[in-house]
Amino acid sequence: MSFCSGKHGCYHDLCVFFITLVLIVTATTAAEDPSTILSRFQQYLQINTAQPHPNYYEAAEFIISQAKLLSLESQTLEFVKGKPLILLKWPGNDPTLPSILLNSHTDVVPSEHHKWTHPPFSAHLDSTTGNIFARGSQDMKCVGLQYLEAIRKLKASGFRPMRTLYLSFLPDEEIGGNDGAGKFVDSDVFAKMNVGIVLDEGLASPTDNYRAFYGERSPWWLVVKAVGAPGHGAKLYDNTAMENLLKSIEIIRRFRAAQFDLVKAGQKAEGEVISVNMVFLKAGTPSPSGFVMNLQPSEAQAGFDIRVPPTADQASLERRIADEWAPASRNMTFEDEENAKAISLFEDVVHLNDAIEDEAKRMENLVKGIFAGNLFDLGSAQLAELFSRDGISFLASFQNLVPRPWVIDDLDTFITKWSKESWKKAVIFVDNSGADIILGILPFTRELLRHGTQVILAANDLPSINDVTYPELVEIISKLKDEQGKLVGVDTSNLLVANSGNDLPVIDLMGISQELAYLASDADLVILEGMGRGIETNLYAQFRCDSLKIGMVKHPEVVEFLGGRLYDCVFKYNEVLE
Q1: pLDDT at 410 over 90
Q2: What secondary structure does DSSP assign to 407-447, as a single string?
Q3: By CB distance 3.0 to 4.6 Å, which of 48, 326, 390, 504 could disulfide with 332?
Q4: Distance (Å, rounded) from C-alpha 568 to C-alpha 406?
Q5: For residue 532, what pLDDT is reported?
């Protein structure tokens, strides 16, 4: 992910920095004996940070001591007691530019001591081969120390970075990272860092060559559910939950095999195919001794980690999931984990907005939430998996939006109209699934409903890229409503969902569905959200009522056309005067 701005190109700067980093690490100078560098590495390796009882504090003391020697700023963050996170900072010449975060972790996996040639925390150096034997020598204490050694040599050469550089040494990565990275990226500290790119570990190299890894494929986390009538284990039934799930697993397995065959045959690289891996199976009725063995379960689930390259036909994959992998005809359903995680954050986002008493400031906050949500598009892998987990990156992105004034900024005019008079009916053409619709548009919609505006949400009938579909939107809203049919206390009787009549992100307003045309006939506000709907095709469209085009600029071609910055914001409001 990059929030690049200004005349210094982020990609160019980062490439130069990365190449410099590698060259500096691999080249030693006469200024320091290589054995001294190895000695520091061995000291770090000799600290036993193996799970499940890592010595985090000793590792933290070592890292902070090295930071002091390098005149780096340091702070210890302890979101969970006993799990310190060390954050180092090398200020850049231009602190307004997005920063670089070099990430590593201090913990290592357990080791079976009796299977080691040398004790795993001895950091034994073989003088013949130059190999060091230690747990963490590859995963990933070597990388953390390489960061520090690179900075040591860069500082000695007089180099000063243009951007601010951060180094993070995280706890608990080997057991999921929930208490380290998980809480770090949800913190105010991380939000204020304005991180443009994260460099992290890849795979160890068995040679003296360095390999760079990048995350280009979009992660889709899919949960397939099957239901069926429960029954005694001695009976035979058609279409049981387990039978239906196993059929789907076999269909998915065949798809996976076909993709893998392309890699094995050398026709495609691994990053060019859709990878599908089953990560969990869940079924059965628990008992004190394990599971009830004579009862057929009424529900069974399987989870899949799917990675989709940008060249794949995402709409085709979504149809395959709905029609083949989890068809309703076999009592199957599926759940997009992106939506599930955004739904889990919905009430928190709403409460944050409701806590703002000033209506103008609350509306500005809601608009910024739309931009923060609109950033997340499965067609452009915005963040590495760890830093987008649980939808947390939405909150950080909210803090790091391009500052106002935006490339087109009519927000003040919109708020002035809003503060004087509410619209009677608003039609909103929505964009992406996940954080965009759930954490951006729906809190904004809820605010309109609070002020008495009837809202029509218009969504495409068929999936295209990451667009939220009409059936999907109906399901999302039903999950967000409480038992009284309210959205966190707000009545939804004036909320309707309609089929837009279009199947593409670039929308043709001449071809909307008859249903939507009827519902929108007396609307006094039309909102087009997203780069395709609001900017690329309808930025200058004229309406007989008030209109708002809102979207984030995510393509360089659009940046050039508008004269703004990448990830700049467009908020174009046109008021029709009576």
Answers
A1: yes
A2: SEE-HHHHHHHHHH---SEEEEE--BTTHIIIIIIHHHHHH
A3: 326
A4: 6
A5: 84
DSSP, res 545: S
Which residue's entry shows tokens 């990059």? 2
pLDDT digits (tens, 9 = 90+) for 174-187: 887 889 998 998 88
pLDDT band at 403, cuts 50/70/90?
A: confident
107 counts as catalytic:
yes
Mapping DSSP to helix (H, G, I), strand (E, B) and coil, where does residue 228 land? coil
For residues 528 and 228, give the distance between their C-alpha atoms in angstroms, rounded to a whole number: 42
d(CA 343, CA 434): 8
Residue showing tokens 């040398």: 118
Ligand-binding annotation for 557, yes or no, is no
**Annotation says 173 is catalytic:** yes
pTM beyond 0.70: no
Position 14 pLDDT exceeds 60: no
Report the C-alpha gap between 529 and 505 in whole angstroms: 10
Neighbours of 556 (CB within 10 A): 9
Contact between residue 3 and residue 133 where contact means Cβ atoms under 8 Å apart: no
Buried b or exposed e, range 36-61, using 16+ CB within 10 angstroms: ebeebbbebbebbbbeeebebeebbe
| Residue partners of 361: CB distance under 8 A and separation at least 6 | none
The Cα 124–Cα 422 span in angstroms is 73
Say which residue the tokens 């608990």 belong to.
172
Which candidate in 149, 173, 200, 336 is catalytic? Answer: 173
Please report how many Cα atoms fall inside a 13 Å half-sphere around the Cα of residue 291, on the Cβ side.
10
Nearest to 214 by CA among 201, 226, 227: 201
pLDDT at position 186: 82
User: Could you give the CA distance from residue 469 to residue 463 in angstroms, rounded to a whole number?
Assistant: 6
pLDDT, averaged across the chain: 85
Q: DSSP secondary structure string, 347-392?
A: HHHHHHHHT--SHHHHHHHHHHHHHHHHT-BTTB--S-HHHHGGGH
Query: Does the structure show a pLDDT above 70 at 45?
Result: yes
pLDDT of 483-539, one tens digit each? Answer: 899 999 999 999 999 999 887 767 888 889 999 999 999 999 999 998 888 898 899
Torsion sign (Cα): 477, 481, 485, 487:
negative
467 is in an annotated binding site: no
**CB-facing half-sphere around the CA of 265: CA atoms within 13 A:** 9
Nearest-5° Cα angle at 141, 139 to 144: 120
Residues 6+ apart with CB under 8 A from 196: 1, 2, 3, 4, 10, 14, 97, 98, 99, 100, 163
Q: Do the annotations mark residue 243 as ligand-binding?
A: no
- Is 522 annotated in a binding site? The answer is no
The residue annotated as part of the active site, out of 107, 172, 410, 431, is 107
Write the single-letter amino acid at 526. Answer: V
Residue ranges and CATH numbers for the domains of the chain are 10-199 (3.40.630.10), 218-330 (3.30.70.360), 340-574 (3.40.50.10880)
The overall longest dimension of the chain from CA atoms, in Å, is: 87
